[in-house]
Structures are given as structure tokens and as C-alpha cells.
Specification:
- The complex is a heterodimer.
- Chain A is built from no helices and eleven strands.
- By secondary structure, chain A is mainly β.
- In chain A, β9 and β10 form a beta hairpin.
- Chain B is mainly beta.
- In chain B, 0% of the residues lie in helices and 51% in strands.
- Chain B is globular and about 40 Å long.
- The chains are: A mainly beta, B mainly beta.
């Protein structure tokens, strides 16, 4: 299986901050990476795919980048509704795997 | 509107069987993969397996192979996840999700989740 490791596991930030979450794959995944947002008690929501493509309806303050094994999710200016847990997921292999999640909390 | 609606919460005893459902609407159910994901209490997301309702092609994560059965009834646009003998460790929220349109392997939308509690 391809292992996905996110960092940090948790992060405290303030409204208006710029934050970056990192996801590292155990082998190259050729940009086959998606990011999901999950709010407490809710189902995950797809934010980005192909490492940097924004899903329809997702605000442009969310962006993604990376290549090979290392990828990042950036939120340019945190809004109150962005405090949630974020997961990366690789789909390079059909044995899909998620990162362990990054909990973004209000400072 | 594309929607997945899951069956309601279940409380079961160890050793009992269970089948939960995920009904798709607003799209051609037979043309998109459906996946199942487990989320244990306070934990992250784990892929369980996927099914293509058009031909019932099913694939399981090695961690869940033999532990659960994924199926679909395309006549009623519904996918299923079932257990023959539940364990306390099966207590979790279970989500279904539809395979993406633009890229295979991405998942959207998701069902609202079915909470399964297994306790004696």
C-alpha cells in the first residue's frame, strides 16, 4: 500500500491567517492526490483533485501544489468556516489511502 | 442534484448480521463507482472497498477483504455494505461516496453516514 503522511497532525491558527498542510506519499503518485475537508459530525467534502485542481464550488482561497511524493494544501486567508479536519488521499493506486488527517483549530 | 442517502443508525450485538444501504439519485447509478469508507470514533478515514454497479465489479482493501461484503442492486440504485458476524471493533461511522466525474479515484458527493454501534 502507498502510505500517506500528513503534517502537522493539528494546527492552531487565526481568522485571516495563511496556513499550509503537507502530505507525503511513500512513493511517487504523479499528482494523483485529492484533498477533503471534514467538519465535525459531517461527511467529508472534496476540495481539490489532481493535486491542484479546485472542485467546482470550492472557494479560491484553497489551493494545492506539489509533485512526486510531496504535496501541500494552502488556505490563503482562513475563514471561520474553514476550521475543520483535512485529509489527503492518493488515487495513484486503486488501493486508495488517506492521510491521518490534520485538525485545524481556532487559536 | 446528485445525492447519496444512507440508511439510519444501527445498534447491534456482537455476532449479529447487518446490511446497510446507500441510495443514489440524480445521476446514472450504473455509470459511477461507489466506495465505502470507515471512520472509527475519533479517528481518520479508511477505505474499505468499491463497487461498479453497472457490472458489480467489486474490489476490497486488503484490511477489509473477507470481513465485509459490498454489493449493489442497480434496479433500485442502491449499494450495500454487510457483515455476517459483527464485532465490537466494527463500531464506527460508515460513509458511501460516488466516484468522481473528472478523475477516477476521487470521491464526491458523500452520503451522510451510517453510525453502527456494536455492543453487548
Amino acid at each position: 500500500d502507498i502510505q500517506m503522511t500528513q503534517s502537522p497532525s493539528s494546527l492552531s491558527a487565526s481568522v485571516g491567517d495563511r496556513v499550509t498542510i503537507t502530505c507525503r506519499a511513500s512513493q511517487g503518485i504523479s499528482n494523483s492526490l485529492a484533498w477533503y475537508q471534514q467538519k465535525p459530525g459531517k461527511a467529508p467534502k472534496l476540495l481539490l483533485y489532481a493535486a491542484s485542481r479546485l472542485e467546482s464550488g470550492v472557494p479560491s482561497r484553497f489551493s494545492g501544489s506539489g509533485s512526486g511524493t510531496d504535496y501541500t494544501l494552502t488556505i490563503s486567508s482562513l475563514q471561520p468556516e474553514d476550521f475543520a479536519t483535512y485529509y489527503c488521499q492518493q488515487y495513484y493506486s486503486t488501493l486508495y489511502t488517506f492521510g491521518q488527517g490534520t485538525k485545524l483549530e481556532i487559536k | 442534484e446528485v445525492q447519496l442517502v444512507q440508511s439510519g443508525a444501527e445498534v447491534k450485538k456482537p455476532g449479529e448480521s447487518l446490511k446497510i444501504s446507500c441510495k443514489g439519485s440524480g445521476y446514472s447509478f450504473t455509470s459511477y463507482w461507489i466506495g465505502w469508507v470507515r471512520q472509527m470514533p475519533g479517528k481518520g478515514l479508511e477505505w474499505m472497498g468499491i463497487i461498479y454497479p453497472g457490472d458489480s465489479d467489486t474490489r476490497y482493501s486488503p484490511s477489509f477483504q473477507g470481513q465485509v461484503t459490498i454489493s449493489a442492486d442497480k434496479s433500485i440504485s442502491t449499494a450495500y455494505l454487510q457483515w455476517s458476524s459483527l464485532k465490537a471493533s466494527d463500531t464506527a461511522m460508515y460513509y458511501c461516496a460516488r466516484g468522481g466525474t473528472a478523475v477516477a479515484g476521487t470521491w464526491s458527493p458523500w452520503g451522510q453516514g451510517t453510525l453502527v454501534t456494536v455492543s453487548s
